[in-house]
Design goal:
This protein has one domain: TIM Barrel. It is built from 10 helices and 13 strands. It has a 10-stranded mixed sheet with strand order 10-9-8-7-6-5-4-11-12-13. Strand 1 and strand 2 form a beta hairpin. The N and C termini lie far apart (about 45 Å). The chain binds S-adenosylmethionine (SAM). The site of S-adenosylmethionine has 19 residues, from strand 6 and strand 8.
Length: about 350
């Protein structure tokens, strides 16, 4: 199904079958600044996880804090505008989505509404039965890894055999950066043959993730960045928004195909308590608005304007040819601003 949205200075087409999206501004040469309604919602359906990763930015624990199915439906209702329709896609996270007792029903309800459901998982709950239940109803599944050893080929195979697009979310931190360069050099292609894409996620010093894990400028980061333009990895590669300033500035990646940080401009985050924030890493309460108190429309059109203005009004001070297309440094983490050092 093709989803279309057109307004002044904003055009969007998304294909729910393939997940391919196109966005352009007043002309195809221009980028829109802001969507009239979020295209993507990142939703934490719990903060419950029994894996206890020592880097977890959400500090997730096996505390049985699940978003109820009724609350999830009310979140989807709130994400549906009379004028613009629903969000195009959701990214379900947590906590561990596959430990949510009503996960299958959550996927089913999302699919019934014509919304593309993607999710990220530590992989432990991936079984043939699960894959059979969700096949044809999800966009992509991401298996998280902080090292190549975390990738479980048998889990990848289960998903791929069921026809599910499978990505790896690889955390780029001070420990994993050397191995990340080796991934780009093709050294682990034997493990990645069935994987659609390896998405590199910039480490955030939040929750159980400490500053020691942050990437810093230096030889290891340089080596990784230098491999991006000539990647020999057999899977596609991708990056989270936090890495975009480096991509724009230090690689030959075509900036027309790179989206700067989209949080609160094209995407939105909702936690298991139904707090709405620009992104899952947002700190403090300034940009947090609960759906029991505010409507999504108010949050999107009014309350996020403070965050947006702050970001647009504080361009980075570097002399950089990409300053007009880059949203600059992260609003929340000074230590992620290594493009500027
Ligand atoms: C918090 S996890 C929740 C979903 C699920 N339990 C999982 O392991 O994918 C969501 C994503 O955040 C990533 N992540 C966790 N801690 C992080 C950190 N400190 N910095 C950056 N990404 C992190 C995980 O690798 C995963 O891709």
């Amino acid at each position: 199904m093709l989803i279309r949205r057109h307004s002044s200075g904003y055009n969007f087409i998304g294909d729910t079958e393939t997940g391919v999206t196109l966005r352009w501004g007043a002309t195809s040469e221009q980028d829109p600044v802001l969507a009239p309604w979020p295209e993507l919602a990142d939703i934490s359906i719990s903060n419950h996880c029994s894996k206890n990763c020592d880097f977890c930015y959400r500090d997730s624990k096996p505390d049985n804090s699940f978003m109820s199915l009724a609350d999830y439906e009310s979140v989807l209702d709130s994400l549906t505008s009379p004028q613009w329709g629903s969000v195009f896609q959701v990214a379900l996270g947590g906590g561990e989505p596959l430990e949510h007792p009503e996960f299958i029903e959550i996927i089913q309800r999302t699919w019934e509404r014509g919304i593309v459901a993607n999710f990220t998982t530590n992989g432990r709950g991936v079984t043939k039965e699960l894959a059979a239940e969700i096949a044809g109803k999800v966009g992509a599944v991401a298996l998280s890894a902080s090292s190549i050893d975390d990738i479980q080929p048998e889990r990848v195979k289960i998903l791929v055999d069921a026809g599910i697009k499978t990505n790896i979310h690889y955390i780029l931190d001070s420990n994993s950066i050397e191995q990340a360069a080796e991934i780009l050099e093709g050294r682990y292609n034997y493990m990645l043959a069935d994987v659609n894409a390896v998405i590199f996620l910039t480490f955030k010093p939040r929750g159980r993730g400490t500053e020691a894990g942050c990437l810093t400028p230096g030889a290891a980061l340089d080596r990784f960045v230098s491999r991006i333009d000539s990647t020999a990895c057999c899977a596609h590669i991708g990056f989270d928004a936090c890495f975009v300033p480096i991509l724009m500035r230090q690689t030959k990646v075509n900036v027309d195909y790179v989206d700067s940080c989209e949080c609160a401009f094209f995407s939105i985050y909702i936690d298991e308590q139904r707090n709405v924030k620009p992104c899952s890493f947002a700190t403090g309460n300034r940009d947090s608005f609960n759906l029991q108190q505010y409507s999504m429309e108010e949050i999107w059109t009014q309350h996020f304007s403070v965050y947006r203005k702050g970001l647009l009004d504080s361009p980075c001070s570097e002399d950089c040819q990409h300053s007009s297309s880059c949203h600059g440094k992260c609003a929340y983490f000074e230590s992620l601003a290594f493009c500027y050092q």
